[in-house]
Design a protein that fits this description.
By secondary structure, the chain is an alpha+beta fold. The protein contains six helices and ten strands.
Length: 192
């Protein structure tokens, strides 16, 4: 539902039918949020809030925004699926962080561009640096050969975490060495 109306006519901004639609279908009493309209006009910004529709259980996002110097636009949309996805992702991340904080293995979570998103305490202990500065402390990776000798440094596409993203196959226990900027060489087994 979208509607634009002059701020000085807020009470008449919606017809009875439109107001009825907003209140019955979306569970939003727009007139209750009139004070936000004045703020929107004053700062020219967008003010959004989510509301649970008590009858349907749907989440409604209402956005108020300045159309011009005297008109406010209102956009109301059902965002239930998005809210449920966000809650699911948050639940999964909390679950993974609980596992990561109790394991004896070092765990790093990488973003697609190679930056570290998360490092558990054991990974910080193994590599000797905090997760937030780890990328600047890691100089390079190399494979360890069967005899324990170091192979050549891996280019970015050859890193285990990148290979898994490109070919989609899990990698278990690949022996590698991590070269740190302070000269340390840390042998690890990497599973992705």
């Amino acid at each position: 539902v979208y509607r634009s109306f002059p701020v000085d006519t807020l009470n008449a901004g919606f017809t009875i039918r439109e107001g009825d639609l907003l209140s019955k279908v979306y569970g939003v009493d727009i007139l209750h949020y009139c004070s936000l309209c004045e703020k929107v006009i004053a700062d020219g910004g967008v003010h959004s809030f989510e509301k649970l529709h008590e009858k349907t259980g749907s989440f409604i996002r209402v956005s108020l925004f300045s159309v011009d110097k005297i008109h406010v636009g209102i956009l109301a949309a059902d965002v239930s699926e998005q809210v449920m996805r966000e809650k699911s992702v948050l639940h999964q991340m909390n679950f993974i962080e609980k596992i990561a904080s109790t394991t004896s293995s070092g765990i790093l979570s990488y973003l697609r561009d190679g930056r570290i998103q998360f490092a558990n305490a054991r990974a910080e202990e193994i590599l000797g640096c905090r997760g937030d500065i780890m990328m600047s402390e890691i100089k390079a990776f190399a494979r360890l050969n069967d005899d324990g000798s170091e192979g050549p440094e891996c280019s970015f596409p050859d890193l285990p975490m990148v290979r898994v993203l490109t070919d989609g196959r899990a990698l278990l226990g690949e022996r590698m060495v991590i070269f740190m900027t302070d000269g340390r060489r840390i042998p690890v087994r990497i599973s992705v």
